[in-house]
Design brief:
By secondary structure, the chain is an all-alpha fold. Helix content is 77%, strand content 0%. It contains 13 helices and no strands. The chain is globular, with a radius of gyration of 18 Å.
Length: 240
């Protein structure tokens, strides 16, 4: 399968700021993100390896530390999050990146992710806003902000920020798919099942696993248990 070379707003910003003077380190960093977005234990391990090699070539490559922290968290799996202390690993690398570059928007975004997973929404909202203050085009920070507002049931603020994220992340299939599913989740929470279903249908064009996951939850919420089971069966058929 040949991938389309779509440059995301984040990548344009990175290139403009020249995050590293070492082109080999930058190439390893991009490869690391590619592995990370593929998902799965092996890909997460490969992502960590690529980020670490990039940092070996340029120990001051702050952006690589941010994504190394996220890769460690993803590798841990949510059920091991606190037991394995990967949350602290994520926080550690965010702080390390910010020590090198105090104006690194993604460093604050990673802290927002860290506190969101600890359900410390006030802290997460603070750091997401800080990330946006530094870079108003940080789609991931808008997404983090929208998800936090959803969690504390401030649904209008959730919609506003997730919509801002959607516009910015439109060129990034992986992040855009997550955005679609969060927006569908918020519509589900307010009882607008029709709009939720419409958004999920769009997500199926990008990632069937995400879409089927959302559809089984939607149908379960609506009380349509047999339909819900069918989507679970579809998921199991994709990955036993």
């Amino acid at each position: 399968i040949q991938m389309k070379a779509i440059m995301t707003p984040e990548e344009r910003t990175l290139i403009a700021k020249k995050p590293t003077k070492n082109p080999e380190a930058y190439d390893l960093y991009l490869r690391g993100k590619e592995f990370l977005f593929r998902g799965g234990k092996l890909n997460f391990a490969n992502a960590i390896h690529q980020f670490e090699k990039a940092i070996d070539l340029d120990p001051e490559f702050a952006q690589a530390y941010v994504w190394l922290g996220m890769a460690h968290f993803q590798q841990s799996g949510s059920k091991d999050y606190l037991n394995e202390n990967y949350g602290d690993t994520m926080k550690y690398f965010a702080r390390k990146a910010l020590a090198m570059d105090p104006n690194l928007s993604d460093g604050y975004w990673l802290l927002a992710e860290y506190y969101w997973h600890l359900t410390q929404n006030d802290s997460s909202i603070y750091y997401a806003k800080k990330a946006i203050e530094i870079d108003p085009n940080n789609g991931l920070a808008y997404q983090a902000l929208g998800v936090n507002y959803y969690m504390i049931k401030e649904f209008p603020n959730a919609f506003v920020n997730l919509e801002k994220a959607r516009k910015i992340l439109a060129g990034d299939a992986d992040q855009y798919t997550q955005n679609l599913n969060w927006r569908a989740t918020v519509y589900m929470a307010i009882g607008d099942y029709e709009k939720s279903h419409k958004i999920i249908e769009e997500s199926l064009d990008y990632n069937k696993a995400f879409g089927y996951s959302a559809l089984w939850i939607l149908n379960f919420t609506k009380g349509e248990i047999n339909k819900s089971k069918n989507y679970i069966d579809s998921l199991c058929a994709m990955d036993s």
